[in-house]
């Protein structure tokens, strides 16, 4: 049998209507074509409800017969309870039974023929009453590791933890000082603070930024502060509650929101709650079973054997199902969330969201929205968030009422694999379409897209590792600069919230932690790169199509990826009023070859956004463009 003798493509509305995720209770029509060479007895649609593992079947109707293809169709109604639906086809012939399913379990689109139960396509059934805030879908993010951004005023060394090493020079590289067991025994600090961020708001605004995401700022022993000591106090080295409130207020005056990092899966062992080191004036869970915090933790052999994040003893794990802890975090009058809401904090990123329960996340979500519906709850998730399973349970992140957004690490991996040459443009296209198919559009346009973060190597360092060795240093530097520009433009022109990790715009390099957390090089920035990020930040601000316009991916060569963004008939993808415009992104990843592409596209003149003197005309509805090695361009259809 030839594979094309049967055909279903989940990306095409002629085979799956509507495309992508489906509102609860809505109809979805599925179609499959089968060559008329086969004597078909029945075609059965199989679909499985993920919540209950309940498999249903429906016989498909013959709906058309042309071009030597017979088409079969069935319409099914989505359940009222949001969940995933999995489907495949069974084709009963006179002499055998065949199946048609997804070719790869992690990639949608076309399928293939099997003689056994195949991988299934996914339909995400969601509650459409939940919307992600409009401001967030239009946002551009700047992520700051507070200790390493900027110091305002004199560093007050007496406020540093006893185990600190405070750098005398801002230009130093970060270090970890460990004992023979590999444990960090002294944390190094540079002294960046909240007042420093406030002082640099004009700079941040100049990057086109509308939300600043801060790594943890609560009192802690370490420089990263993921080992919270007291959720109700700002770390003294960073400043005060009043400093945070000033930052929130002055940022808001510039149209910039603030987002805090919520580390609610574990605390520090050196904390008011656990108090293993005895540094706090409290009765910690480590000190006594009579501690008010004892039930927050899980001990196996009291007091030294307890659950800890990844086995790290300084990060004892919290019992997320403990009602006392939930009240402390969310519901009490002076709960963590309510306390900081009173200071104007409405947006949170949840550290290791997979290790929190969906129930706890939704409690936080409801409290945030109760106070301000425009609040945003972002989760740290490293995989496809629509079908994520953690601790044996399917997560409800994007079904409604749990999260507004996740960190889009899957897209980052696609971009890097493309640059490494481990994935061609055709595969990137299919994988991006798969994410778009799996995510309800409210969430696809709300995910946090990034090239670097505090948990991964910086983009410039990664690209240096990917280049072949036979380029001279000068050639390599020029190519890497072009690659960074091309990838960042991809990010800023793509649906979702582009996130710029502090210092990437200045040319900061860095491998694994702590090297990826170097201080911002004030006065030593890469001026060309900085100018570029300011430029693309403004483009994104100026063009609605780049934020909430429609999106269509395509590729014409294994080395060239592209997509269109557009608004039409006076509205964007969410039916919000805006002016009509059409944009086109193209990128040639090849480091050596120019590549000419011929793109079927709307007739007209297309203007290069960076160099407005470059204008390309489509002839006979085909646009011919030659792309230099590592060149990307953003074009605008001239009216």
Topology readout:
Blueprint: E1 6-7, E2 16-17, E3 22-23, E4 27-35, E5 40-49, E6 54-59, E7 61-66, E8 69-77, E9 83-93, E10 97-104, E11 107-114, E12 121-126, H1 134-137, E13 141-144, E14 164-166, E15 176-178, E16 184-189, H2 194-199, H3 201-206, E17 211-214, E18 218-220, E19 228-234, H4 241-253, E20 257-262, E21 299-301, E22 305-306, H5 323-331, H6 336-342, E23 347-350, H7 358-371, E24 376-379, E25 389-390, E26 393-394, E27 405-406, H8 409-420, H9 425-438, H10 441-444, E28 448-450, H11 459-466, H12 473-493, E29 497-501, H13 527-542, H14 545-548, E30 550-557, E31 560-567, E32 581-588, E33 595-600, E34 605-608, E35 615-617, E36 622-627, E37 632-637
Parallel strand pairs: 3-12, 13-17, 13-29, 14-16, 17-20, 20-23, 23-24, 24-27, 28-29
Antiparallel strand pairs: 1-4, 2-4, 4-8, 5-6, 5-9, 7-8, 9-10, 9-12, 10-11, 15-16, 18-19, 21-22, 25-26, 30-31, 31-32, 32-37, 33-36, 34-35, 34-37
